[in-house]
Amino acid sequence: MRCWLDSCPKVNRLAYLLLRYEMNVVLLGPPGSGKGTQAELMHERLGFVHYSTGDVFRDHIKRKTPVGYEVKEYVTSGRLVPDSVVIEVMNAFIAEHVGKPIVYDGFPRTIPQAEGFGRVLDGHGLKVDAVVLIDLADDEVIRRLTARRQCRKCKKIYNLTFRPSRKEGICDECGGELYQREDDKEETIRRRLDVYREQTEPLIKFYEDKFKLERIAGELGRDKVFEELKRILETGKE
Ligand SMILES: [Zn+2]
Q: What residues sit around ligand 1, an ion, with C-beta below 5 angstroms?
């Protein structure tokens, strides 16, 4: 398959610029805003390393590292992993990927995490280069997330609006039954949104005071949001 980067001189130039520089980009946004998808696009098309606390935790647990054991204990007992552990994990991640552009997907989550993050970057001679908030109204978050369905067998995720299966209620890949996870029910989503607003509003203020925080409307959809993101990154580098 031909690499997308090779086919677009403009983005090729952007990727080239980014790959030559260490760049730390924070993506904030409510659940369902598509920040994970955007971080993946930045990884695939612009060569960013994708940092997601959850994925990195799962990786440590899988590799049975000392931190992995610690995190597993918190997770299995249903307790929140303390900020100090989150920061420790992030520090190790940065040390491992020094010299590469990194996109932080939904991290930091709280002000103490943001402060710890700043100190860690400082310790590596780095800084936060851009903070981008992909915003989405609560009603749209609920509309998007309640439309999610997952295959019981192979766990593939579908969306009744954006990515429906060919046959209603049946997985394209394995023929398994599609169902709505407890996480994707309206009541659960409203609770997650409450937590998000409570923790992230102060964080938005924190970054607005320190940096120029850029906002993109999540309603624009995947491709237009990515266009906006590239524009922001390119301006930031010139
Ligand atoms: Zn399936």
A: 151, 153-154, 156, 171, 173-174, 176
Cα of 42 vs its chain's centroid, Å: 11
Ligand 1 centroid, distance to 147 Cα (angstroms): 17
What's this model's pTM, rounded to 2 decimal places?
0.83
| Structural domain count, the chain | 1
- The answer to whether residue 145 sits within a structural domain is no
Residue 119 annotated as catalytic: no
Measured CA to CA, the distance from residue 133 to residue 123 in angstroms comes to: 25
Q: Which residues of the chain have pLDDT under 50?
A: 1-6, 238
Going from the Cα of 97 to the center of ligand 1, the distance in angstroms, rounded, reads: 34
| Ligand 1 center from residue 150 Cα (angstroms) | 8
- Does any domain span residue 153? no
pLDDT in tens, 148-199: 999 999 999 999 988 899 999 999 999 999 999 988 999 999 998 998 999 8
Does residue 127 sit within a domain? Answer: yes
- Per-residue pLDDT, 75: 83
> Domain for residue 166, yes or no?
no
CA distance 233 to 129: 9
